[in-house]
């Protein structure tokens, strides 16, 4: 089910999208396979933290965050947030199914530029059985408060 926060974001921006249902999955690679979508077009959200608070990084599911790039961009020594923190911050989402609209949850969000190279984007709706699908222009409009940057690199062995 689409998280209430995400639903409000989609509604307030008048975003055109569709919901893609898929069998329950545990990881972004599993989700891409289960939903039959290219991993390059599936945006995943990684929650990071430091003593100043939380930051979200949104990148393709086939990529990993290069922390050194984010440290250089932000001037902060960010590390992966704990699962318990995710439960507290994203109360209307399942752990591991965070939608990319983290500015709606009150946190600074960075969007990796590599996601802008594809005509369509898919992302978690807040659970492990639904994705939101929209064209990239709609996605960029939805993510207008996110700062665009280069901080991701393709993981070895990940297919497109």
Description of the molecule:
Strand 2 (42-50) and strand 3 form a beta hairpin. The model has no long low-confidence stretch (mean pLDDT 94). The radius of gyration is 14 Å and the shape is globular. The chain has one domain (4-154): Alpha-Beta Complex (YbaK protein). With 160 residues, the chain is α/β, with parallel strands linked by helices. The strands form 2 sheets. Strands 1, 2, 3, 5, 6, 7, 8 and 9 form an 8-stranded mixed sheet that branches. A two-stranded antiparallel sheet has the order 4-10. It has 5 helices and 10 strands. It has helices spanning 4-12, 28-35, 67-74, 83-89, 136-142, and strands at 18-21, 42-50, 53-60, 63-65, 79-80, 108-112, 120-124, 130-135, 147-149, 152-154. It is 24% helix and 30% strand.
Could you name the key traits of this structure?
single chain; 160 residues; alpha/beta; YbaK protein; 8-stranded mixed beta sheet; 5 helices; globular; YbaK/aa-tRNA-synt-asso_dom_sf; aminoacyl-tRNA deacylase activity
Please write out the topology.
Blueprint: H1 4-12, E1 18-21, H2 28-35, E2 42-50, E3 53-60, E4 63-65, H3 67-74, E5 79-80, H4 83-89, E6 108-112, E7 120-124, E8 130-135, H5 136-142, E9 147-149, E10 152-154
Parallel strand pairs: 2-7, 3-6, 6-9
Antiparallel strand pairs: 1-8, 2-3, 2-5, 4-10, 7-8
Molecular shape: globular
Classify the fold: give the CATH topology: YbaK protein
The overall average pLDDT, rounded, is 94
Indicate the proportion of strand residues. 25-35%
Describe the oligomeric state of these chains in a short phrase.
single chain
Pfam families: tRNA_edit (PF04073)
Organism: Trinickia fusca
Protein name: Deacylase
Domain YbaK/aminoacyl-tRNA synthetase-associated: 22-140
